[in-house]
């Protein structure tokens, strides 16, 4: 029962990071890099729509951050204060950074530049907090979460806010296709860099936790890790297909629908990766 609650808490936190970091990645890594963006395109890619993903993401992270100790208190018949992490200053710092990010995302509508800057600072310091307070596995995991959220979280916001918004606009078909082409081409370098970091940090994490190779098929942790790796492999394969096959065809009328379908498929398997990962982090490392 307790392990199931922990897994759900981890899943909520992962989804929160994907949405919040994805919103920031979309703003700074995609929209800002899109060449010659028109006023009509700016209206389609409204900053406040992406910021709403950030608001939801920060609230989910905060829920997981506070919900973990609260659940532990109920389960073990303790007070909430007794269930808080031993490193209380790190907990308070992360909470403060989440508040800063939340303020930033909510300010986007009235002061876009200031709002996005505060949101980026808050969410980056929140996710990277283990870098300067945790041990090596925590440091590597923080980079892993940041990179995965930058890659697939930004793809989520790009698909829902960017590509979907362009498809639903009243612009001519050729113009829609060209704008989607610009968005995807702006996203590609960010995705390739983040995916590379995901691979490096993922292998490092596996090396730190697996004491021997046989743990991959003799322990619950190893078997779950194998399932995750298979799903990640599928996501990478779909991403490679989008980059090598679908992206070159963008710009032709109707191509925006094709990239939306392929991106949705990639995100579907990414969601499965999140679910498996939320279970994996609750399992004990092999002895």
Overview features:
single chain; mainly alpha; 287 residues
Concise description?
This protein has 287 residues and is mainly α. The chain is built from twelve helices and no strands. It has helices at 2-31, 39-44, 47-75, 80-83, 88-107, 112-127, 129-133, 136-167, 173-209, 215-218, 220-246, 255-280.
Helix count?
12
Measured on Cα atoms, how large is the radius of gyration? 20 Å
- Name the helix and strand elements from N-terminus to C-terminus, one letter apiece: HHHHHHHHHHHH
Oligomer designation: single chain
Architecture overview:
The protein contains twelve helices and no strands. The chain is mainly alpha-helical. The longest helix has about 35 residues, at about 175-210. The chain is globular and about 60 Å long. The two termini are about 25 Å apart. About 40% of the residues are buried.
Task: Draw up the topology in text.
Elements: H1 2-31, H2 39-44, H3 47-75, H4 80-83, H5 88-107, H6 112-127, H7 129-133, H8 136-167, H9 173-209, H10 215-218, H11 220-246, H12 255-280
């Amino acid at each position: 029962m307790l392990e199931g609650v922990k897994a759900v808490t981890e899943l909520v936190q992962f989804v929160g990071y994907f949405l919040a970091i994805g919103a920031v990645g979309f703003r700074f890594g995609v929209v800002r890099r899109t060449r010659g963006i028109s006023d009509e395109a700016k209206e389609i890619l409204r900053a406040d729509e992406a910021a709403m993903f950030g608001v939801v993401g920060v609230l989910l992270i905060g829920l997981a951050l506070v919900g973990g100790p609260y659940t532990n208190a109920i389960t073990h018949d303790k007070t909430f204060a007794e269930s808080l992490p031993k490193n209380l200053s790190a907990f308070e710092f992360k909470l403060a950074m989440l508040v800063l990010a939340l303020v930033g995302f909510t300010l986007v509508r009235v002061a876009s530049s200031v709002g996005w800057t505060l949101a980026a600072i808050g969410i980056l310091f929140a996710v990277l907090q283990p870098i300067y307070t945790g041990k090596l596995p925590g440091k590597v995991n923080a980079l892993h979460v940041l990179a995965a959220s930058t890659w697939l979280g930004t793809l989520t916001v790009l698909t829902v806010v960017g590509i979907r918004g362009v498809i639903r606009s009243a612009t001519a078909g050729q113009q829609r296709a060209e704008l989607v082409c610009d968005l995807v081409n702006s996203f590609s370098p960010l995705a390739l860099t983040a995916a590379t970091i995901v691979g490096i940090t993922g292998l490092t994490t596996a090396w730190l936790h697996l004491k021997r190779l046989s743990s991959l098929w003799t322990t619950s942790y190893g078997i779950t890790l194998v399932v995750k790796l298979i799903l990640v492999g599928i996501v990478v394969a779909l991403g490679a297909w989008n980059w090598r096959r679908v992206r070159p065809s963008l710009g032709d009328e109707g191509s925006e629908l094709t990239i939306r379908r392929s991106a949705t498929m990639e995100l579907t398997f990414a969601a499965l990766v999140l679910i498996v990962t939320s279970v994996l982090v609750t399992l004990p490392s092999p002895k």
